[in-house]
Amino acid sequence: MIKASPAGPVCHTGADTCFNENNSSFSLEKLEAIISDRKNNPTVSSYTSSLFEKGINKIAQKVGEEAVELVSESKDENKEKFLGEAADLLYHYLVLLQAKNFKLEDVVAILANRHK
């Protein structure tokens, strides 16, 4: 389930937990935070940074390409390829949201409002 909460520390001390533990589990929120970091602190070796450098048109094009690839894979019975394309689409969608200065929680809020 996607939570509509910001990524980052959950303890007032800045640690992952109030017990000074590292929470290394993966989440969309953590991925979104990594994407945001690549946007704000670009590095030469980062694919994500290179997408931001190429601009909104390239990012949008990648989202479209990945969507077409996902649709194509959905017609076959190859679970790994389908899920791989779904992951690619979701990643590029998160990059597009960041490029437009939005977060996943903005989209989740709209879905929640529609669910009322």
What can you tell me about this protein's structure?
- This protein is an all-alpha fold and 116 residues long.
- It has five helices and no strands.
Radius of gyration using CA atoms only: 16 Å
Overall mean pLDDT stands at 87
Category by helix and strand content: mainly alpha
Strand content: under 5%
Number of strands: 0
The end-to-end distance, rounded to whole angstroms, is 18 Å
- Number of helical runs? 5
Shape: globular
Poorly predicted regions are 1-9
Order of helices and strands: HHHHH
Largest sheet: none
Q: Helicity level, as a percent range?
A: 55-70%
Core attributes:
116 residues; mainly alpha; 63% helix; disordered N terminus; 5 helices; 0% strand
How is the topology of this model organized?
Layout: H1 28-40, H2 47-54, H3 56-74, H4 79-99, H5 104-115
Brief digest:
The chain is mainly alpha-helical and 116 residues long.
